[in-house]
Amino acid sequence: MALDVYVGSLTRYYVGDWERALDKTGRKRGATSSGMTAGTGADSKSDRERIRTAVLAWREALAASLGTHLDEPLLWEEAADVPWFLGRLGWRGLGALVLWAAYAEQPQLNRPDAVTETWDDDPALVRSNDDGFRSRYSHLVRNVELWLPHPFDFTFEGEDVDGRRILFGSSTTLRRQLGELNEATWNMTPDEMSALSSRRAPTGNLLEPAARQAMAVMTWAVRHAVNHRLPMKLDY
Known about the structure:
By secondary structure, the protein is an alpha+beta fold. It is built from eight helices and seven strands. The chain has one domain (4-235). Helix 7 (190-197) crosses helix 8 (207-228). It is globular, with a radius of gyration of 18 Å. The N and C termini lie close together (7 Å).
């Protein structure tokens, strides 16, 4: 199953007015796009407005549930025609980056050389998610699916627009934590990460190359999320 990271309005996401990384042959990874995927978009203007209304109602309910945990209104542009961005991440890439973060804060454990399909049961990741452990990379290691363009430090569980229970985080905090992880380990320059984000994912299952590639893609995506003040969502 493919895994992409989408940045844009949730209205556009649920309307389907964007294209997945595998839907366009030859699309440069990390490029900005603005097309509409055939067969997935809303059928009429009224359908689009219905979806936008549902997203706005969901956001209002979410803000009410968070209450005093927020120090400013939970707002961002929610139109179907705002810019959108898509990065090809892949489950192996995400797993490698999550493990890299977990082992960076669990140095007493021996980091594996490879990432496996059962990476979510890894002992370092389990420790980073233990109750009472204050992870330095919480918005990366805690299975967050949707990062909101709002500056808060906590992660929380709630309902997505479609009613699924997921974990939420902050794109502002994720950007900071990714920067700190890079500084603590590879110390890649912005130019190095920009170039890496547009390359093909490395073959094989070696942990570090996959983690470096995923770091570049996630950094590219979260930069757009913060700069354009838009939600950032895993799509699979």
